[in-house]
Amino acid sequence: MKPVSSPRRPAPSRRAPVAFSATLFVLASLGLTLAPAARSQRPAPTAPTLTFAHGGNAAEVPMELAANAVFVPARIGQGRSLSWLLDTASPRTTADAAAFAQSFGAQPAGSSPALALPGLEIRETALETHPFESLGPWYGERVNGVIGDDVLNHLVVQLDYARLSIELYTPAAYTVPRHTDKLSVRWVDGLPTVRAQLRLGGRTVEGDFVLNTGGGAGVVVSPGFLAANRMYPYRGKTIPGTVFSASGNETVSLARGEWLQLGHSRILAPLVAIESASAAAPDAGVRKRKSKDALAGWIGGQILRKFDLVLDFPKDSILLVPNRDFIFPIEADASGATITAAGPALTQFEVRAISPNSPASEAGFEPGDQIAWVDNDPASNLTLDQLRELLSHPDHSPVLVIHRLGRKLKIQLHLRQLL
Description:
By secondary structure, the protein is mainly beta.
């Protein structure tokens, strides 16, 4: 299949999904490791009690994308509705510790907390908690909790990325539509994986990739997988990037693949994040690979958003139908700046890192710079996604006003294609 010239995706509205910066990939699942025991089964915790509204068997839930990751509104007990990450790469449903303490205080003593989505109540025997405050700046969205596979295993979940809508069904209530591409799911170390082929550096490799609706990257591959295929260290063109996870952040090398094959669908020119060999250490959240029968990596929202995606985990399968975004090319950052959100409302923006020999370094940006204005518009009028998208247009030259150590500076960025 020869690459074709594709149109650029239209500029998004304020809350619409946008392309994710190539200099930053978000890995925000709690349990995702890239080298598990290869033949583990799906997790089997005590099943939560799921109750649909009005005695029904289906519900429709609004969906929001931040950094290509899926967020849904949910509330604990009688608390207010907050954004939760829907993450297929997290085995357990987990609440942010601060959000849980604030919401659960409204529950009667001794009762189990109920997690409520629009039209669906989820009652866990014991809802775990974890501090997620550090994740918000990378997403540009607060993570008040994570809905994991212990819930998703008991539902059929239909994600319509184009319409920003999710439909939830009991397994018995869902009817498989015609003309869908069905892929088998294999459970590895409690995580759902699918078989995929990746063309990278003139070589075609095949492996099991974790489905990661909570991660913003396109494709992440491990050094062990590449080494098993005699491709590590990778000799093709790369630029530095960052992968951020609940256990910390790590440096990766970003490359352009030729294509990624998922079932019958071929995605052209995906962005591929290659972990460094040091990332295989346990303290980085990734264990060393011992054999070829190990995970290749994971596939995240930058790829998954190109489909209508059905998670039919009760039947160990997913269904794919390319959506209207499928034809648009995957855009990479053209600035060389890693930017995160800041401030109480995550409406301020900070430069975290600068790639050498990039437009950002040549223009004089420094880590710690606060972006205040972009082309005569206050930066606070933008989402983090929109700001990253504005910096992904080669040959554009936006003017940014930044604050640095009490000074106000005006800097023009001459963006160019980096990958």
